[in-house]
Amino acid sequence: MQFLTSLLNYTYYGDLSWLQDVYNVLPPILYTILAVVGGAGSVYAIILGVNLAKSETEDKRKAAATRMKNTIFGVAILLVLVLFINLAIPEILHAVYPDLVY
Question: What is the pTM of this model?
Answer without folding.
Answer: 0.63
